[in-house]
Structures are given as C-alpha cells and as structure tokens.
Amino acid sequence: xxxxxxxxxxxxxxxxxxxxxxxxxxxxxxxxxxxxxxxxxxxxxxxxxxxxxxxxxxxxxxxxxxxxxxxxxxxxxxxxxxxxxxxxxxxxxxxxxxxxxxxxxxxxxxxxxxxxxxxxxxxxxxxxxxxxxxxxxxxxxxxxxxxxxxxxxxxxxxxxxxxxxxxxxxxxxxxxxxxxxxxxxxxxxxxxxxxxxxxxxxxxxxxxxxxxxxxxxxxxxxxxxxxxxxxxxxxxxxxxxxxxxxxxxxxxxxxxxxxxxxxxxxxxxxxxxxxxxxxxxxxxxxxxxxxxxxxxxxxxxxxxxx
Length: 306
Hints:
The protein is mostly helical and 306 residues long. The chain has helices at 3-15, 22-28, 42-45, 53-85, 95-98, 103-124, 126-144, 152-171, 178-203, 207-210, 219-243, 254-270, 277-283, 285-304. Helix content is 72%, strand content 0%. Helix 8 (152-171) packs across helix 9. The longest helix has 33 residues, at 53-85.
C-alpha cells in the first residue's frame, strides 16, 4: 500500500469515527453527570410506604432513559460548542473539542439513542415520554440560543432538574406537592448559579471568549443571587417538611439541608469548586455523607414515623 492509499484510508477511518476509541465515545456521553438523574428517584423515596418492585423497576428504567437522553443533549451541546470549548482550560480536553472523535459520528450516535429512548419511554408511560421530549427540546433551545441570554440561561439549567423530579413522579403516578417542586427548583437554581460562578472565576479576564453570557455576570452579582436563593431553599424546605402531608418528623432533616448548602458555599467561595456538581458529590466526602444521611433519614422517618 503506497503513501496515498494510506492517507486516504486514514481519512476514511477518521470520517467514520473508527479511530475514536469506544472509551472516548462513552466519555462523550458524560456518564459522570448521570448522577443528576438520580432526582428521578425522589418521588419514589417520598412514597416509600406505597413502593413496590414494579414502581422500583419503572423508576430505574426512567433513570436509564433520562441518562441516555441527557447524553444526547451533551453530545449536541458539545457539537455546537466545540470551537468555544477549545478556548476553555478544562473543556478543551473533551473528546469532541480535542478532536479525539468525529463530531458527525457522535451526532449520529446521539440521534440513534434519542429515538431509542423516546420509543421505550412512550411504550412504558406516555406522559413520561412527553416529559423527555420537553427536556430534550428545552436543552436544544438552550444549546442553540438561550445559553446566551443572561439569567434565562441559569433558569433553563435549573429547569432540567425540576423536569427530572416531575418525570419520576409521573413514572409511579404520584402527585408532587408544590413545595417539593419549589425546593427542587431552588436547589437546582443554586447549583446553576454556582456553575456560572465557577466558570467566571476560572476564566477571569477571558470569560467572554468561551461563553458570551459570562460578560454580563460578575462574581458580586452571582454571590448576591446565591444569597437570595440559599435563603429561599432553607425556608421552602422547612415549609415542605410541615405541609407535605408526611410526618412532621421530617423537620429533623432540615439540618442536613442547611449543612449541605453551607458546605457547598464553602467549596465555591474558598476552594474555587462548584462547576461540576456531580464531581463535587462524588469527590467531597462531606457532601456525599450528608446526602447519604439525608436520604437514610427520610426513608426511616417515612417508614417508621408515619
């Protein structure tokens, strides 16, 4: 085989994505961020007394489907942002931005996963399938336009968490109280604001070169946003524990919410973290233990004190 044939074969392999290893394509799906989809289990946890294996099965399946659809969103977002990501000190190492995989092959993979996920979703639960479509379309709008609109961008990020929680409720046919949805939205908003703050802190003077909307934010403004939202989180969750229709003993879990919020604020203010909530959850032992203790406490209270 001569040099010309070798060069043609190399280009063909690159076009069809054959030189991108399987691990790179899996990394492109961002499995570490699938922890966000654990919110699907929230409705099941707060309905623990009526839970059964069938509801658990449906919730697990819903979690998997959300993981696949969210991966489609990540693929689309990275495809659109691949040039800007090359200017980012961390995101430049992502498979698509670094050139490790063919972006068009990745988009094809995303389209296949989306069709498969929506087909299964509508088969098991039509309202849940609609929720997945809303989640995907909202994130498409975010990737193409809304991520450049100040304040709206963080609201869209936060809405993704709320949609996950609502989807979990639809899967097991359990109505979610307004205070539960409010708490979910506020916590998600807190994480979204913290994410923007981390990007602003990380990029400093070159902030607009990666994400245009960062030019409209400042650390002081985002700190004020977080101050407002964290206050609302504690108040809303406290009201939820007393008005949710569950045991008032849920009030004892307020301490975990307060500590978790304060710990996260410490991490973003003092250690410059917070850009990746899923990474903080897995790597910060304080946050991880707090989440585990909170979940265990809720289950014990709902099972033995209702």
